[in-house]
Amino acid sequence: MSKDTKFAELVGKKRIWAVASIHGELEKLKNLHGQLANHFLPGDALIYMGNILGRGPDVAGTINEVLNFRRLVILQEGAEIDDVIFLRGCQEEMLYKLRHIPFAKEPEEVLTWMAGQGVESTLRAYGTSCEEGIRAANEGMSVVTSWMNALKAEMHKQDGHEQYMDALKRAAYTADKKLLFVNANIAPDMPLDAQSDAFWWGTQEFREFDYPFGGFERTVRGYDHRHEGFHMADHQLCIDAGCGFGGTLVCVCFEENGALVERIEV
Q1: What residues contact residue 157 under an 8 Å CB cut-off, 6+ apart?
Q2: CA-CA distances (angstroms) from residue 14 to 71, 144, 182, 255?
Q3: Domains of the chain
């Protein structure tokens, strides 16, 4: 398997905690962190499974909250700087693609589609909107470039937000191949390092296959496009309970042997 830095490999962790998609729901995240702080121990790892951004009422505050909790984790005695991992979700992928929107063939169509996918709340966190972007796109490349540069400047003002985007991983896995963590999906006929957009927009229905993908005993995902709730089978697990769509925020814990041992839900 590729040792590309796009992936995070977990080695020798006593336990692994995984947080489902948050979607800008700051109060639920604060509640979850308050409970998690009483359980998290040095030697544990924490994975945010993507979609920290998007849809909810306070995207900027949610990013600040995960960054602050990360600081608390890595300041523990015996902790390591890579004990907290952020996966790129479809919401983060859209923000990343927006950085290149001036070069899109039909930028206004891209922005209209993204608006339907929940990116509006992320744009508002940085002082703009889909409507402003579409208006800029209709006025030409130079205007939409200026719009994008203004968005980047607003992100730069937010301490740690650019670094958060730069630190995103496409997937994470344990070195012993007990567990693979992805945002939303995988294409079963493709190797892990060739998945690309399948991690976020894959059309394969995750629940349709329940066998070890790529030699991993279990694949865990943090977001379900179909919003069908928490679901566990022999070789796959979906921990999304609908946070950002009126549902709850879930965090689960795995022991070193890959067994699911705890669940926090707020």
Answers
A1: none
A2: 20, 48, 20, 6
A3: 7-89+169-265 (3.60.21.10), 93-157 (no CATH)
In this prediction, residues 55-61 reach a mean pLDDT of 95
Measured CA to CA, the distance from residue 24 to residue 51 in angstroms comes to 8
pLDDT in tens, 149-203: 999 999 999 999 999 999 999 999 999 999 999 999 988 888 998 888 889 986 6
What is the rounded CA–CA span in Å between residue 174 and residue 16? 9
Question: Tokens in use for 105?
Answer: 């063939």
Inter-residue contact 95 to 122 (CB < 8 Å): yes
Whose structure tokens read 């890959």?
258
Following CA atoms 225, 228, 232, 237 in sequence, which dihedral angle do they give, to the nearest 10 degrees?
A: 10
Q: 250-255 and 231-232 as β-strands: parallel, antiparallel, unpaired? A: unpaired
| Side-chain half-sphere exposure of 230, counting CA atoms within 13 A | 14
* Whole-structure pTM value: 0.94
SS (H, E, C) the chain: CCCCCCEEEECCCCEEEEECCCCCCHHHHHHHHHHHCCCCCCCEEEEECCCCCCCCCCHHHHHHHHHHHHHHHHCCCCCCHHHEEEECCHHHHHHHHHCCHHHCCCHHHHHHHHHHCCCHHHHHHCCCCHHHHHHHHHCCHHHHHHHHHHHHHHHHHCCCHHHHHHCCECEEEECCCCEEEECCCCCCCCCHHHCCCHHHHCCCCHHHCCCCHHHCCEEEECCCCCCCCCEECCCEEECCEECCCCCECEEEEEECCCCEEEEEEC
